[in-house]
Amino acid sequence: MLNAARTETVSARYRALEEMGTARVLDALLEGQTAATEAVRRALPALDAAIGASVPLLRAPEARLIYCGAGTSGRIAMMDAVELNPTFSWPQSRIKVLLAGGLESFEEAREGAEDDAEAARAELSALTPRPGDIVIGIAASGTTPYTLAAITLARSCGALTIALANNPDTPLLQAAEHPVLLDTGPEVLAGSTRLGAGTSQKMALNLFSTAVMVALGKVYRGQMVDMRATNAKLVKRAIAIVTDIAGHSEDAARAALEATDFRLKDAILVSHGASPKQASALLEATEGNLSKAMRQLQGQDTD
Predict the structure, then answer these.
(1) Which of 95, 141, 172, 249 is 20 to 30 A from 190, alpha carbon to alpha carbon?
(2) Is residue 114 flagged as an active site residue?
(3) Where does the pLDDT of residue 111 fall: very low under 50, low under 70, confident under 90, or very high at 90 and above?
(4) What range(s) does the SIS domain occupy (predicted)?
(5) Given 8, 18, 19, 83, which residue is catalytic?
(6) Cα–Cα distance between 65 and 83 in angstroms, integer?
């Protein structure tokens, strides 16, 4: 069988899956998930290179992250994308998702949409991709026409292109500047790439987006200091974060948050003696980097 069809291969190990007891089926499925973890581990150097190329571009205020996929891969891409605003305050205007078949495909599978390369070109063209944008294409097979068309067009427009696929030497990986192979091999349930392949894609996107946001200064002391406190649970989390970092009481942390419209970075600086206006100015001067702003506030950084 060709390498391009590894995810479609029937594994001799699991050919009698339906004859196994439930406990053994669960063991087998867990084995597939473990294989996904190892596939991501092997892909870390490629992910590191993709992150290294992306971060300098994303420092520009107009640069966008554009995800593209079909079926399971597209839905996984969307799940990663929608978390960036509440978790890191990444602007909604700088997150785009191309999902084959449109948003309706998230709730109801539209398998035929993955073959519509022209739709992908039209949808991406409507976004006017440009140098500085990051376009990420995800496809287990590595041959999905919709995703391949988007990556090919994005690259021709000068955008940075990243591809995640689960089969080696496939057109999608060859089309992107930064190919990331997640070689999960045959699925426990042959061809069901929502299993090991899907898990590896979810993990890889988690790693990619989180590491990018860490590099962009959206994490401080291991905490989500650009988080948006949009409900009661997140307000409590915001208070806990400021309390932990500032070393003050919860009441003092809440007061600092209230004085800064619940902007965590500003509140942390206020908790360390800055006025709300000074906190805002420090963050503007350091492009939102709280570590640098803290050093400037404490007189340890004169840059």
Answers:
(1) 172
(2) yes
(3) low
(4) 54-218
(5) 83
(6) 13
